[in-house]
Design goal:
By secondary structure, this protein is of the alpha+beta class. The protein is built from 12 helices and 12 strands.
Length: about 500
Amino acid sequence: MERRGIASVFGSLPLPQQVMVGVAIALLAMGSFFFFRWISEPSYTVLYSDLDDQALSSVVTELDRADVPYKIEGGGSRVLVPRAQVYEVRADLAAAGVRSRVVPQGFERLDDQGLNVSEFMQDVNYQRALEGELARTLAAMDDIATATVRLVLPKDALFSSDQEETTVSVLVDPVRPLDEGQIETITFLVAASVEGLTAENVTVADVSGQVLHAAGQLGGTSALTSRNLRLTREYETTLAQDVQSLLSSVLGPDRSSVVVRATLDFDEVSSEQETYDPDSATSLKESVTTESFNGTGTPPGGTVGVDGAPEPPADSDAYTYDRNETLREYGINRTVSRRVSAPGVVKTLSAAVLVDDGSLTGADAPDAAEVEKIVSAALGVDATRGDEVAVSLVAFPAPQDPTEPPADAAAASSPLDLIPQAIGALVMLLVVGSLLFMARGANKKVVTPVEVGTVNAGLPGGSTNVEAAGRGDAGAVEPGVRPDVIDLVQRQPEEIAVLLRGWLADRR
């Protein structure tokens, strides 16, 4: 049985349906073209932003020379390139000497000063040079695109008590959100680069208007607290990983869970002690003075007069004067000790351990006392310090069959990535369904009813049997032929009609 081609099916349709089919095919072609063009078009991302006219001209010229597709947005302040080429293009532009913006000048600003520059201009140029050096240093960090630094350098006061503090504000444009460690790095880097500047007087903000580090004692305390919390969490995580690795090597994987909490003392304590030994008296210096005077009468003395001569003695009797004086300086043992306690001392330590009891997994239940002993030894638990270890046997869920796909496998990829494909598939499915529905309706309209008994007329070599079957002569045909023919006609009326037309045309 031959099947008609697409051209014959299309030619058998009425003219309005042919027009509708043609329009649908044209719409399908146009939709497919725009859909695949949208899918194949590269995704653009920002190469440089906040460009001035000179920098924009240099970037565009270099992109044209390298034959890289680009877009200009933001009134000529942003240049976009395909996302897959952004890092390569940025490296090529940097190698060619093209920069996104003018690099702030540092101390080279002071090289061209003349002899007639006033003291005020020298101070201003020094401040601008220092700001440029700090901005250039911060921009060298990987996660910072650009940075702007503003210094407030007070004048020197006559008395140190009247001296005002130096302050600074830093505005950064981060490539990605900065964490606490990076903000702390910026704060201490700027504070250590300016004379008389402390970390409490540094203000750090980003271009979105968010204050990352506030000036004042509150900001410094917050930063210190955040750092202490981060160090505590790192210490707890390290201990938990060590204990977890130890239990996994003994009990097996996924049969235990460990949580460690520690209280660390970050107070830095400095003490100095000075000790003297009174029994270790040793003469270090000795001075002996001896005076002797023999004569008659009172030796001259008294208050010096106006003329500078001493008063005369009251009498002239004979006298003898002796004076002995000894001065000794003793040294004793002296011990001075200075003790500084480093911050981060462990005050208390606690751990919670959950172990599989094997009720669901079928594994052997371990001894809780033995597990507690092992964990206490691994953590260095000190009972006098108030440390505590709690071990509990609980039922862990049975491991999942590796042959079964995980429940969250479908969630691994974002559903938004499938939206273009789903829309395209839906459009194509609707168009194809419409075409098939219209073609089927057209075939049903042109089919001419055929009597079952006349089917034999075109069958070669079988007309007698089929006519007999049409007359109901059961003895002239084979059993089961008539039901098969009737079933064939009912199941494939269109194909039977086309076949009969072909046979009738051949007989003519």
